[in-house]
Specification:
single chain; five-stranded mixed sheet; mainly alpha; 14 helices
């Protein structure tokens, strides 16, 4: 393979590898600090609504990281033993149904889909939605990560890229504005809703962390939920790595591998930045995102049985 062809291939696989991650505004490469405790949420008494009995989210062939924010079985619980309502908020990777996936999506009665991707990501893999489902694009990113990914020379540099990406959820003006818009719309819109990015792990993972924190779910459970991407997307990650290796070589695949899944250090970097900048998640929600107490209370009421 010629040098030009190989460079073209590397750029292509860099785009493929990183498309599940958000674009960040050139944060410096740095090691993430260990996770520090972040404050819990207490927004007073709200109307929690009635308990819901909903089946687990279907496992979908073309949307392998599709799942219920509330978890499986009875759903995640808060410190008082109240279970998070299932069938309210779903998280996903790009909505590209295959086979029986569309029928499964239709059975959920979805009312709205929030797409957190860029125009370029959407053009590469546009959503295919059930009839009657509203669509809203809320791009959460800033910068050109494809060029940054092309420069990655080691797995540690790839990890640092995603750690910096999670820090940008806290420090980035555009990123915060996107999460503000998403959480506000989730509160104000009725019916089951789904939000997603390309791989359903970084932008989507941060949004899910915020919702579960609002519901009072403990940090260990939230982390376990975040790491489930590696289980749900196992086969697609393997297939992508095999493709990268075939096009650009095993060394490039090794360098890119950390971009395809999630590691605890990624979201820990964002949480450490949150603590440094705002002290607690509730202050991040109110001071960083500008959410009103009524919006947060509405989300809490939707989330808790």
């Amino acid at each position: 393979m010629s040098r030009t062809s190989r460079n073209t291939g590397v750029r292509a696989v860099a785009a493929l590898a990183i498309s599940g991650s958000l674009l960040i505004s050139g944060a410096a490469l740095a090691q993430a600090a260990p996770l520090s405790p972040v404050g819990s949420l207490d927004f007073g008494s709200v109307d929690l609504g009635s308990s819901q009995q909903v089946s687990d989210a279907p496992r979908l062939v073309g949307i392998d990281n599709f799942r219920d924010v509330a978890g499986t079985g009875p759903g995640y619980s808060d410190s008082f033993g109240r279970h998070v309502n299932k069938g309210v908020f779903y998280r996903a990777n790009a909505i590209t149904p295959k086979g029986a996936d569309m029928a499964a999506l239709e059975s959920l009665g979805l009312t709205k889909v929030y797409d957190l991707r860029t125009a370029a990501e959407i053009a590469d893999k546009p959503d295919v939605l059930p009839a009657g489902v509203a669509y809203e694009n809320i791009p959460i990113l800033a910068g050109d990560i494809y060029e940054m990914a092309f420069q990655i020379k080691s797995p540690d540099e790839a990890r640092t890229l995603l750690q910096d990406a999670n820090r940008a959820f806290v420090t980035g003006t555009e990123e915060r504005a996107g999460f503000t818009r998403l959480l506000t719309s989730l509160a104000e819109s009725d019916g089951p809703q789904v939000f997603h990015c390309t791989a359903g792990k970084d932008r989507t993972g941060w949004a899910s962390m915020l919702l579960l924190s609002i519901a009072g779910v403990d940090r260990a459970t939230i982390m376990n939920d975040y790491l489930l991407t590696n289980e749900y997307s196992t086969e697609s990650i393997k297939a992508t790595l095999a493709y990268i290796s075939s096009v650009a070589g095993p060394a490039v695949a090794t360098n890119m591998e950390p971009l395809l899944g999630v590691e605890a250090s990624y979201i820990e970097a964002g949480l450490d930045q949150l603590e440094s900048s705002y002290g607690t998640i509730d202050r991040y929600l109110t001071d960083g995102l500008g959410l009103s107490p009524s919006t947060i209370a509405t989300l809490k009421a939707k989330l808790l049985a």
